[in-house]
Amino acid sequence: MRRHGWQRPLHPLQVVGVAVYSVLVACFYAFLGIFLGNRTAEITLIVIFSLVAISVMFLFVRCTAIDPTDKTSFKRKKRKAKSDTVPKLNYRFIVSQIVVRFFRRVERKLLRTFIKRKYLDPVKMSTGMEPLLPFPLVMKDDDAISPNLNEDDISFCALCDFEVKKHSKHCRTCNRCVEGFDHHCKWLNNCVGKRNYTTFFLLMISVLLMLIIEGGTAIAVFIRCFADKRGMVKELHRKLHVEFPREVLATICVI
């Protein structure tokens, strides 16, 4: 069972993606970003491109490393194991809770006495009114806990032999159930699901922005190769320190 996208063996498209990214970044710094003809525009564009390129690299590593596996069965076993063990008394925690609850009760009494608002009463307070509370210490009942999953929300995967959530799907490539399964991305060598969908979405936006910047810069440099022939030849010799034909630079821009 694959846990994340960096687990071997790596997919060939994953290696190709890293190689293409490296070539695009190298070409931008070596041939595109420094031949716009305006020093201010070059510095500004290089800074923006650098930030976007770093974001792409970070999000790619992060999205590939996230484990989107449905861990419902593991959580239930862990919860059951905790309930079976004999709890140890933490006197420091108990004392702190007593103090905190005391101040909460005092605050509630003060609020009910001096401010006549029904929604401040935790018994009558609705869920929609909770964000409107102006006092950070007015909270829900101390005994309130998050509800457990209903049995209707639990399904069983015969391939994993585990209990999973109803909207989870089994990925045959990774041999696991993924919560909120969207698709298996070969470029990441990982599944895209609920746990890493936001990171994947941000990665796609960053990649698109990076390609727009590089594509627009390539078009601008390509036009300048023919609109400003003498200036481009002098700038190529001054910045690259070799006789570099502008036709080759134009070809790199097209590629």
Summary keywords:
255 residues, mainly alpha, two-stranded antiparallel sheet, 6 strands, transferase, PFA4/ZDH16/20/ERF2-like, membrane, transmembrane helix
Secondary-structure-derived class: mainly alpha
* Spatial ordering of strands, largest sheet: 1-2
Radius of gyration: 29 Å
Average the pLDDT over all residues and give the rounded result. Answer: 78
Tell me what portion of residues adopts beta-strand conformation: 5-15%
Termini separation = 40 Å
Q: What is the chain-wise order of helices and strands?
A: HHHHEEEEEEHHH
Number of helices, where a helix is a run of at least 4 consecutive DSSP H or I residues: 7
Number of strands: 6
Helix share bin: 40-55%
Which overall shape is indicated by the principal axes computed on the Cα atoms? Answer: elongated
Largest sheet: 2 strands, antiparallel
Low-confidence blocks of residues: 115-150
Summarize the structure.
Helices cover 54% and strands 8% of the residues.
Overview of the structural elements:
By secondary structure, this protein is mainly α. Among the domains are: 127 residues, no CATH class; 38 residues, no CATH class. Helices cover 54% and strands 8% of the residues. It has 7 helices and 6 strands, in the order ααααββββββααα. The strands form 3 sheets. It has a two-stranded antiparallel sheet. Strand 1 and strand 2 form a beta hairpin. The protein is elongated. 21% of the residues are buried. About 14% of the residues have low confidence. GO terms for molecular function: protein-cysteine S-palmitoyltransferase activity.
